[in-house]
Design a protein that fits this description.
The complex is a heterotrimer of chains A (about 325), B (about 425) and C (about 350).
Chain A: H1 2-21, H2 27-53, H3 61-77, H4 86-108, H5 113-133, H6 135-138, E1 144-145, E2 151-152, E3 154-155, H7 159-182, H8 184-194, H9 196-201, H10 206-232, E4 234-235, H11 242-255, H12 261-276, H13 284-298, H14 302-313
Antiparallel strand pairs in A: 1-4, 2-3
Helix pairs in contact in A: 2-7, 2-10, 2-11, 2-12, 3-4, 3-5, 3-10, 4-10, 7-8, 8-10, 11-12, 11-14
Chain B: H1 3-15, E1 28-35, H2 42-58, E2 62-63, E3 66-74, H3 79-91, E4 97-100, H4 104-117, E5 120-123, E6 142-144, H5 153-162, E7 167-172, H6 176-191, E8 195-200, E9 222-226, H7 230-241, E10 248-251, E11 271-274, H8 283-296, H9 302-320, H10 328-336, E12 340-342, E13 345-349, E14 355-367, E15 376-388, H11 396-401
Parallel strand pairs in B: 1-3, 1-4, 4-5, 5-6, 7-8, 7-9, 9-10, 10-11
Antiparallel strand pairs in B: 2-3, 11-14, 12-13, 13-14, 14-15
Chain C: H1 3-34, H2 41-59, H3 62-85, H4 91-112, H5 120-140, H6 150-172, H7 183-186, E1 188-191, E2 194-197, H8 198-220, H9 222-232, H10 234-239, H11 244-270, H12 276-291, H13 296-316, H14 323-335
Antiparallel strand pairs in C: 1-2
Helix pairs in contact in C: 1-8, 1-9, 1-11, 1-12, 1-13, 2-3, 2-6, 2-11, 2-12, 3-11, 4-5, 8-9, 12-13, 12-14
Classes of the chains: A mainly alpha (about 325), B alpha/beta (about 425), C mainly alpha (about 350).
Amino acid sequence: MANQQFKILIVAATLATLVLIVPHSGSFVVLLATRAMAFAILAMSVDLLLGFTGLSSMGQAAYFGVGAYLTAVLATKFHFGLGWDFWIVVILGILLGAALAALFGLFAIRAGGVYFLMITLALGQCVWGLAYRWNSLTGGDNGINMSGRPNFGLDLGNEVTFFYLVFAFFAVSMALMYVLVRSPFGQSLAGIRERELRMQILGYNTWLHKYIAFIIAGGFGGLAGVLWAQTNGHVSPETVVLTTSVDSLLMVVLGGSGTLVGAAIGTAIVFGLREYLSTLVPWWQYVLGGVYVLTILYLPMGLMGLLSGVRQRFGSQGKGEGLKKLATKPS
Amino acid sequence: MTNKLQRVLMGSCLALGLGLTTQANAEELRIGYISPVTGIFAQVGKDMVDGFQMYLDEHGGKLGGMDVKFIVEDDQGKPDAGVTKAKKLILQDKVHMFIGGLLASTGYALAPISTSEKTLYISSVSSADDLTQRQLSKYPYFLRTSWTSSLPHQPLGQWACDNGFKKVIVIAADYAFGYETAGGFQKVFEDCGGKVVQKIWPPLGTKDFGPYIPTFKADADAIFTTMVGPMALQFPKQLRGAGVKLPILGSGVSYDEFVLPFMGDEVIGDVSALHYSAAIDTPKNQAFVKAYRAKFGKVPGYYSENNYTTAMWLDEAIKKAGGKYPGPEEFIKIMASIKLDAPRGPVELDENRNPIENVYIKKVEKKKMFGYDKDELWNTVIKTYPKVSQFWTYGKEKFLAQPVYDRDFPPCKNCE
Amino acid sequence: MNTQFWVVQAFNGVSYGALLFLVGSGLSLIFGVMRIVNLSHGAYFLWGGYIALSIIAATGSWALSLPLAALAVALIGLVMERLFLRSEGFEFIRNAVIGLGLGLLAALAAVRGHFIGAGWVQFAVVTALVTMVFFFVFSRVSIIPIETDVLRQVLLTVGFAFLFQQGALDIWGGNNMDINPPSALTQSIVVGGTYLPLYRVFMIGMALTFGIVLWLVMEKTRMGAAVRATVDDAQMARGVGIDTNRISMFIFALGAFLAALGGVIGGAFLGIYPGLDFEILPLAFAVVIIGGMGSLGGAAIGALAVGLADNFGKALFPEVSYFTLYAPMVLILAIKPTGLFGRD
């Protein structure tokens, strides 16, 4: 277990360094970091499904979207969530994401493998259609503009303050998910991922396990959406498009699925490439596409797999037990 | 944290290329430009940038005597990305103003940043009506050099009425731009005595119009259509293929110079309205079209003209300000005081900081123009409505008292 | 709503379905044999259209562009399948190709960062050096073969879809273009006062022709029997001596061929423009999901169902037109996760 504590220590130290440096490194970097961390919560929720349960969701943008739209609609139509009641919006966002996942899960969980991927894709597209079409609520294609961030003693309008808040949510989410996957429940999820039939024979209700994991992931998706809406001050159907879901999935694979930290690293890299490299060169898309192809081809366990590989090569203590798994089993 | 450690850490950030801040230069005018130069709108994004850049190149990279640092940022056609890029321009590059934004949603997303960061935002393409109408008070550092979606289509309603059309079918893309163009047309057309007898909203991106064409009412005498992007190519083709011979009165963007070169002869005779046509027969426009075509190999559309004109407008304003940038409040006042003679004709700002400009009713014709030796499709101007305001002839108070044009406003009284 | 309305709408729905069949059948076959969802299928469709445009511009012949563009894309599909999805035995070329790609990017970056001048020699030297370094590294890395992991393969096709998208943009630009078929096909025939555009008739004809040919090949030839055996149970097929590796290559190329053919035919009907790839992809999904993956007959039924549902849905219930496609798809999947005719 010392190995595990060592890992936690590294992650904690990295996070501490981040929170110390970023606020001093220029406002644009603060903004980028804030965006990446809000999105990383979504990516980690995808990892919860992909890496720990073996479900490849291609529709995670749906929960992200309802969280974001909920925030924007409450703020503009009801002037709700602009003060301390922001915290109520956070809770509502999580609940709404979870509730939607509870509904969609009824359709999706029955299917496995590629079929699960397709059905979540279709469900995600339904939410996109709704965002586009339900003009009176969502503002259709124009989207919804929010008129500034909440202020409850703490003025979130300040980019650095807001960074600290999102950072806190990000760190807490990561910790919670970590506790979850280490719990007995998390262990049985891993069992289902490895060999569902055996778990059924052992008497586990695998459907229920997967269903609950799906709902929890939806809740975190909703939370990410709330933060995302506040970060940009604007929500539009672009938030819910298919590529948002695909991106979050690719980020997880890039960083290394089944590690949580990998999801965050993957998010950071993609945001770095897309939002920073694109300010420098016009051919950044080749770099991004190339990074995807290379990682998937040569690093099936993502960048985290590379790390553990290096550590093993240099003979340090780790057996890399948590990282030895393949992304998923073929269906 | 010690100073030294901080510097080391900062250094490692610099090594990553992050955290670079540009040193402000006193004499240079820093302009940020946001457009989709990658992704599916890349060509439009490029046309926008080209228009602005061409004016800069023609004037030695200076506007009003100031050296210009022109920084183009890619929003990938996503409002979220536009927001990030705008903040990058303001916080890192310390720009004096930012310009651009293609989609209506991007315009909506960028405007609040001008308010929160107290930096001038000039919308040079994005046309969402309400930005310069009911929502203007929220955005004191915002102005527009392009158009509102309904602006050219209100005169088109008048023209249709004056030319004897009585019953019109409206078919427009199902999103805000479609509602605003169609709404402007319907309001004026019906106030003048015409009737819109059917409204159809195919989803944005529809290319198969098979489901819709057979539902057209038989007693209509014309079709108003707003088709954008690839929809614009397919609709006229499929309409004529299905044997419908009704005349088309179109939104300007359905026939603008961006799509026209790729259209077939079936569009000859179709009428549309916009605040620009490459076929405006004035020396100024001819010079613009020829210079642009020589440089970029294509006829400019309004995306390019609007940005060329924006650069011209800035040139005049900086000149008037004495060769310096006087801050957003003062600069907006100066911009509003200028009457510009642009390729598209005379332009000036109204009190809501939206242009008052000519609207051209255009008919697609196949002919030779400006001395080019090939027969090509051109948007021949058949009628000019001079100096049209976004409020048409209703007046600001009366116009703003009604809701923004929408799917169900004006209501379709004569449908069914 | 008289008879004529129903006839025209049904005709439109069937013709749209015909186009979808061309795209969907390839996707379905690939899934059946390889068990992967090819997310670059939309890109094949788009590239088919673009290559056809280039061929038409060069030769002026639309008829020539049909087979040539489809074959060109089939070749692209073949290369992609051999080098990246089933690369056993081709690792050497694959590593070289990827190394070269990275070398080019590195050289581009070096030019951009003014580390080297813009001359060709310097550019080539940097490219060659970086290529060699990466080639060496890649040859050293032992990787878990991608064949064992469906999800990795699927995600790999996503990565390629992004690369194809950007490539198309750089090669053909971002204008909205249109393929103009010969004027004989742009006419309409009038049957009992109803206008039927000939091009739609042509689309139905093409889908029927290819559908029947495919069916005959699958049912009546040795090759077809081997394919069917692989779809049913790849392991068993290998056991009885079928070269499933070659089958997979053949089917992937065939799928790309059909998608590109759809792109050329559909290009005159939908246009050719950036973003079309990701618009056509969900439609092709809908076809195979409803029909069941891996089944040719399922793809035909699925295409017809999607074409008709989409058409009548939009005509009769325009208010919910965004869901006329996805809602039935979700329902069918929820009831029968493998689609109407799918086996698993």
